[in-house]
Amino acid sequence: MAVIGIESSAHTLGIGIIEDGKILANVKRMYPISDKGMIPMRVADFHVRGVRKLLREAFSTAGMGIEDIEAIGYTMGPGIGPCLSVGNITAKTLASKYHIKIYPVNHAVAHIEIAKHLNKFSDPLALYVSGGNSQILGITDEPFKHYRVYGETFDIGVGNMLDNFARAAGLKPAWGSSVAKLAIGGHYIPMPYTVKGMDFAFTGLQTKAVGMLKGSSPSDVAFSLQETAFSMLCEATERALALLGKKSLLVCGGVAQSQRLKEMLQHVAGSHGAKFGFAPDQYNADNGAMIALVAEKMLGSGKHSYGIEDCGVRQDYRADSVEITW
Ligand code: FE2
């Protein structure tokens, strides 16, 4: 029997189907990113209008139907409330109509777990970098088995910082890819660098970089912004790696699509004798397969039982509050 997962925490509606850890479908539909940002209700409406078609596409890709589904997972949070509600209501409707088990899944845990699964890592240190989040996490057993957050941003996620800069520079915001293109051929200019132990902050850097667009070469500013932000992430990650002595490091989340960040982290891992891993881009961007994977693990552990009434959404659902039962 298979497990289906629905992801709808932000501008991507994703549906994945997994059976025994094998990804049978991972389809998605993205609200077009504009230079003006997103209005939550419009994005939620986009997801509502697309969810039936996407479900059909997922079943057709996997070559199965709802009768082959044993459990359904959906993103409980963190994320944008109206968007989360679309996946939540869809999952609850399917679960009650077809008498399928339902599992609320933490989005950050799902990003880590899919990268861990695809790299066959058992106990990695994870750098989770996306629009709204930037955290360094690793599993600990104290006081219960969970992902402890060893370091995180004091203000905004690195992805949102890159997107904000991209908008100010007249570029399309897209997980830093437009900033990376602009950075090609740029030269380094010193910028504000904020690391406190294993934590970091990005708003000072963002303000400085946006201000510098007036008098400096945009390419130099983009290059320096990217190098500074990623160096901050690498310094904090290296400190956590040295402290914990983990034998593997992975990067996950939307910003893990950055080639430059992966190059720098590969170097960090190599200097500590740790393996380095990441997932293919379709699993770094938001996706339904990662939600199905965690739901399958929750099902397999036999330690979870949720009624429809237990399943809501939590916009501030932190990874470190989730008990890892598998
Ligand atoms: Fe995400």
Q: What descriptors fit this protein?
A:
binds fe (ii) ion, Nucleotidyltransferase, domain 5, single chain, 2 domains, 5-stranded mixed β-sheet, 326 residues, alpha/beta
Question: How would you concisely characterize the structure shown here?
Answer:
By secondary structure, the chain is of the alpha/beta class. The protein has ten helices and twelve strands. Helix 4 runs parallel beside helix 6, helix 5 crosses helix 7 and helix 7 (218-244) runs parallel beside helix 8 (259-271).
Describe this structure in words.
This protein is an alpha/beta fold. It folds into two domains: 2-110 and 283-321, ATPase, nucleotide binding domain (Nucleotidyltransferase, domain 5, 2-Layer Sandwich), CATH 3.30.420; 122-280, Nucleotidyltransferase, domain 5. It is 43% helix and 21% strand. The chain contains ten helices and twelve strands. The protein is globular, with a radius of gyration of 20 Å. Fe (ii) ion binds next to helix 3.
